[in-house]
């Protein structure tokens, strides 16, 4: 049974009837009505969740046990949600869940993930607090994993977070910290054409630093409530990887891992801010 059902127009204006009208406009666009439904994670979601985890973890996905993480997500259907368009048995287009890193520390998939995060964050001074917490057995860290297909409307995000808050309250879960695992990207000027020129250059922001973009719009809001936040380079980035993602623009993109650590007392306020910023589907 679905948790909630919402109809989204996806911001696309209705199609104009141009039959018999010689003044047909190039601006005529079909309206696409989509019914989004929120479901608890179920066993038939295994492959869909694994695919979304692979997308979330990007270049480093094969360093981690995605099957083990998907199994752990499915073992706690009372926490987290999937978003679907074609009924309960269809593949998830988005998901959000939370894993208790402390309680699951002996799980091989979680142990591998903690080790990965520790190695990636220890050299970033802005993530020093996170690095310390990951090695503290007394810390109660809730790891939030969330990903969606690239064309999903951001309005689906607030309900995912608010439902998680309700589920955590019902389950009596209490975390000292919440860690959102995400990713960002930078635009990289392609220099494929001239082999003897310097290596690719990261586009600079207005302030002269690296200009960072968010794959998940909500991360910009969540970061304002963070105890610490920062990124790391993927271990398995290949040469030319950014150019392979260049497609129809002059710049390629260089993806990076990103972590946002929020203290437990501030998480509810962060979720509320996400809803105000993105607007909830209704």
UniProtKB/TrEMBL annotation:
GO biological process, one term: protein transport
Intracellular or extracellular location(s): Nucleus
Domain of life: Eukaryota
Stored InterPro entries: BCP1_family
Keyword Nucleus tagged: yes
GO CC terms of this entry: nucleus
Keyword vocabulary terms for this entry: Nucleus, Protein transport, Transport
Pfam families registered for this protein in UniProt: BCCIP (PF13862)
Keyword hit for Transport: yes
Region (Disordered): 1-26
Function: Involved in nuclear export, actin cytoskeleton organization and vesicular transport.
Family the entry assigns: Belongs to the BCP1 family.
PANTHER family: BRCA2 AND CDKN1A INTERACTING PROTEIN, BRCA2 AND CDKN1A-INTERACTING PROTEIN
Name of the protein this chain belongs to: Protein BCP1
Originating organism: Sphaceloma murrayae
């Amino acid at each position: 049974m679905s948790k909630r059902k919402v109809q989204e127009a996806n911001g696309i204006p209705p199609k104009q009837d141009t039959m018999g009208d010689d003044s047909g406009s190039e601006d005529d666009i079909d309206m696409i009505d989509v019914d989004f439904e929120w479901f608890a994670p179920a066993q038939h979601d295994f492959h869909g969740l694994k695919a979304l985890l692979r997308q979330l973890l990007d270049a480093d996905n094969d360093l981690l046990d995605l099957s083990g993480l998907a199994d752990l997500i499915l073992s706690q259907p009372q926490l987290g949600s999937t978003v679907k368009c074609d009924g309960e048995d269809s593949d998830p287009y988005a998901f959000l869940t939370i894993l208790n890193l402390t309680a699951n520390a002996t799980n091989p998939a979680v142990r591998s993930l903690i080790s990965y995060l520790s190695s990636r964050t220890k050299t970033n001074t802005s993530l020093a607090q996170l690095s310390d917490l990951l090695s503290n057995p007394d810390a109660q860290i809730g790891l939030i994993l969330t990903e969606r297909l690239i064309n999903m409307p951001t309005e689906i995000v607030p309900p995912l977070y608010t439902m998680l808050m309700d589920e955590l309250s019902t389950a009596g879960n209490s975390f000292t910290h919440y860690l959102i695992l995400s990713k960002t990207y930078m635009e990289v000027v392609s220099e494929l054409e001239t082999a003897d020129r310097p290596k690719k250059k990261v586009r600079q922001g207005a302030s002269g630093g690296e200009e960072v973009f968010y794959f998940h719009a909500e991360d910009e809001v969540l970061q304002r409530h963070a105890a610490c936040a920062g990124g790391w380079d993927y271990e398995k980035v290949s040469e030319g990887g950014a150019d392979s993602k260049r497609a129809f623009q002059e710049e390629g993109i260089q993806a990076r891992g990103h972590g946002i650590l929020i203290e437990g007392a501030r998480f509810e306020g962060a979720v509320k801010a996400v809803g105000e910023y993105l607007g909830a589907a209704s």
